[in-house]
Amino acid sequence: MVDVVFDAPAEPYALVATARLNAPVEKVWTAHIEALYVQQWWAPAGYINREVEINATEGGAWRVVQSDPEGNAFSFFGRFEKVEPLRLLQCTFTAELFTEVRTHMRIEMSPTQGGTVLVTSHIFPDLYHRDGFIHLGGMDRMREPIQRLAALLRTMR
């Protein structure tokens, strides 16, 4: 199991997850931009991704439809604001259940000896929404997909 370290800086209002993955940055990048891979890992434990659409280009859209353990379906969607291959994905993030709250995701990848450092930042409009996300299990909702990603990376060629 991969260790995920969290930080909640005062500014910007973000929850930042950092993990060292035992895979080259090329694999980590591919697992983030190919829908068939994202479908396998980008969800908390017990959740299933029913649909994944990704156009990982600047201005391109993304959308994920998930099911929770009770079978309820809901979606997340956004647009890519910045894409630097093998280094950075930055996008808007909107939950279907809370369309009035638009957040941002910033995913940074840095090659290291023996793997990749992955830094995932979920950036919120204010402290209220960031702390609310944390209190509703936000750390687990970020940790579990990263752990699923690490398991997937071990199987990728």
CATH hierarchy class name: Alpha Beta
Q: State the domain count.
A: 1
Main β sheet profile:
8 strands, antiparallel
Structural class: alpha+beta
Q: Provide the CATH architecture.
A: 2-Layer Sandwich
Describe what you observe in this structure.
This protein has four helices and eight strands, in the order ββααββββββαα. With 157 residues, it is an alpha+beta fold. The protein has a single domain, classed as Alpha-D-Glucose-1,6-Bisphosphate, Chain A, domain 4. The protein has an eight-stranded antiparallel β-sheet with strand order 1-2-8-7-6-5-4-3. The chain is globular and about 40 Å long. The model has no long low-confidence stretch (mean pLDDT 96). This is SRPBCC domain-containing protein. It holds the Pfam family AHSA1. Residues 22-126 form the Activator of Hsp90 ATPase homologue 1/2-like C-terminal domain.
Which tags fit this structure?
27% helix, 8-stranded antiparallel sheet, Alpha-D-Glucose-1,6-Bisphosphate, Chain A, domain 4, 157 residues, globular
Would you spell out the secondary-structure blueprint of this structure?
Blueprint: E1 4-7, E2 14-21, H1 25-33, H2 35-41, E3 48-54, E4 61-67, E5 73-84, E6 88-95, E7 102-112, E8 115-123, H3 127-135, H4 138-155
Antiparallel strand pairs: 1-2, 2-8, 3-4, 4-5, 5-6, 6-7, 7-8
Helix pairs in contact: 1-2
Domain Activator of Hsp90 ATPase homologue 1/2-like C-terminal: 22-126
Family: Belongs to the AHA1 family.
Organism: Demequina lignilytica
